[in-house]
Design brief:
Blueprint (H helix, E strand, L loop, with lengths): L6 H8 L3 H8 L7 H13 L5 H9 L4 E5 L9 H13 L3 E5 L5 H9 L5 E5 L6 H8 L4 E4 L10 E4 L1 H14 L5 E6 L2 E2 L2 E2 L1 H17 L4 E5 L3 H14 L5 E3 L6 H10 L9 E5 L2 H6 L5 E4 L2 H17 L7 E4 L2 E3 L17
Parallel strand pairs: 1-2, 1-3, 3-4, 4-5, 5-13, 6-9, 6-10, 10-11, 11-12
Antiparallel strand pairs: 7-8, 12-14
Helix pairs in contact: 1-2, 1-3, 3-4, 5-13, 8-9, 10-11
Length: 343
Amino acid sequence: MSKKTTIVDIARTAGVSVSTVSRILNNKPDVAEETRQRVLRVIEDERFAPHITWQQLRTGKSRFIALHFPQDFNPPSQGIITNAALRCESAGYTLNLIVGPLDENELLTIFNSGQADAIVLVEILTHDWRVEVLREHDINFVMVGRCADTDGLSYVDSDIGAGVKDAMSHLVELGHRHIGFITLGEITPEKEYGFTAWARQGYRDSCLHHDLPLLWRTADLSNESVAAVTFDLLSQHPEITAVVTPQDSGVPGILKAIATKGLRIPDDISIVGLLDESVAEMMTPPLTALSFTSRELGFIAVDMLIAQLTGAETEPQQVLVGSTLQVRGSTGPARVTVPASLR
């Protein structure tokens, strides 16, 4: 068995004292740069420290990437997180997940204290203070999602606006002329979820294009709120023959309201949601749904960020990932008469 390399061996080979090697290993500043680099070369040659460790020492970088996924709107997406972590590891980085709320000081401390070299932001608001702080302090970051002002910023996002337009076109082709639209989440000038804003824009554009009335409502994040809002919408507008929601958590509440109204899917009302394919297939009837790949979002975000860190990419990158509309049993031709339960 070969003898294990020690700090004494490193000091002897590099021609320095043990205390000097110790100061370098602890990243102390009081060592001449020439000496530091000579010791680091010996550490690398002798495989004394793991590859990432000596890279951290050599470059002064942490090799950590943070991912901030606040839970204000949705629970963390397993797909985005898992695949971002896999991409980080394959490139020699480590992903640190942050799911709690942050203030400006806490966000900047992540970088000032060397906890991370860059950050992926998820759950983007149309006017997101995190974006402005990071931009002001010239910190490397990438968004999964996008804010209103994306000038000079890098992001990867689901093209939910185009997806909603596809859903609306599908329903219009089936003869639907009164289509309700349910979104979730608080909407104020200070706090609007970007995904919801782009989805609503897609709905508005479709209604204008097809000369349809705007029948949009927003609900809180609970099933009870969605059910109540949908019930009220159907009561106020019995002419509605279809409902679309761009958020998967809106589907159960909509179905509850439809059942309470005594309506049949798709004979009385058609439904289009945003739902994982495996779940959509299991519903009765199977749900016509938009689907995106969170795997792709996680991979692309980390690739963008590493390109920033390594200098491989100096221009902002902006990628929209398209959706797929899977037509299933929850959509059908628009009914001709208003059901008795809606009169």
